[in-house]
C-alpha cells in the first residue's frame, strides 16, 4: 500500500475509533481494560526485546522464498537478503507482539495456529503468553524458519512447532492433526482470496470461544474487502478493528456487533 493510501485509511480509522466511554459491551469493555490497554511491564517483554535486537544486528545473508503478496501475480519469488532487513520488513513492532502475548495470556488457548512465522517473534509471543499451549506456525521458507528456530531456542519456547512449505499444501494436514483451534493468527498472505480461503478452512476447527486475529486488515483495498466479508460471515458474532489487527469472535447468544477501538 502506498504511504498516502495508508495515511488516508488511518485517518478514517482514527475518526471512527471509540474510547472506553463508548463501549456498551461488558465483554469488550473488560477486554479493552485488561488486555488492549494493559500498561504493565511483563518480564517476557524484555526477553522479546533482547531477541529482536539480536536479530536486527544479524547481517547474515540468506536466500528466501515469498509466496505472499510480495510475489504479485507470480506463485512465489526468491531473493537474497540480510536477516536484519527481513526482520525489519516482516516482523511486527514490539507493541503488537506484546499485544499477542497479552491476548494469549488472557484467553489461555490450548491450540494456536499462526500463518507466517518470519523470525519467530510473534509465535514466541503467543507461546510465552500461554506456555501450556501447543503452538503450530506455518512458514513457506526453510531458511527463514531456521532463523525462527534460533529465536525459539534463545527464548526457550519449547511449545512451538514450525511446519515448512506452501500453506496450500501444508494447511490441510495441520488442520487434520489438531482437535480444535482456540486462537489463529493470520499473518502469512496479505491478499483477499488467500486470506478468505485460510479463514474458511480454519472455521472447520473453530468453536464458540475461538479467537481469530488478522494482521494488516487495512493494508490494501483487497484486505479491506476481505475484512468486511469476514465481519459479515454468519458464524462471526463480534469483531474489533484495531487498524493493524482485526479480532474476530464467535460467541453465541449475542447480537452481531463490530467495534473500532483505539489501543
Low-pLDDT stretches are none
Structural class: alpha/beta
Indicate the mean pLDDT.
91
The backbone outline, from C-alpha atoms, is: globular
Strand line-up across the major sheet: 5-4-3-6-7-9-8-10
Number of helices: 10
Could you give a short account of the major beta sheet? 8 strands, mixed
Distance between the termini: 22 Å
How much strand content do the residues show? 15-25%
CATH topology: Rossmann fold
Give helix % range. Answer: 40-55%
Number of domains: 1
Q: What is Rg?
A: 18 Å
Number of strands: 10
N to C succession of SSEs: HHHEEHHEHEHEHEHEHEEE
What does this structure look like?
- This protein is an alpha/beta fold and 263 residues long.
- The chain has one domain: 3-Layer(aba) Sandwich (Rossmann fold).
- Helix content is 45%, strand content 19%.
- The strands form two sheets. Strands 5-4-3-6-7-9-8-10 form an eight-stranded mixed β-sheet, with helices on both faces. It has a two-stranded antiparallel ribbon with strand order 1-2.
- Strand 4, helix 7 (142-155) and strand 5 form a beta-alpha-beta unit.
- The chain is globular.
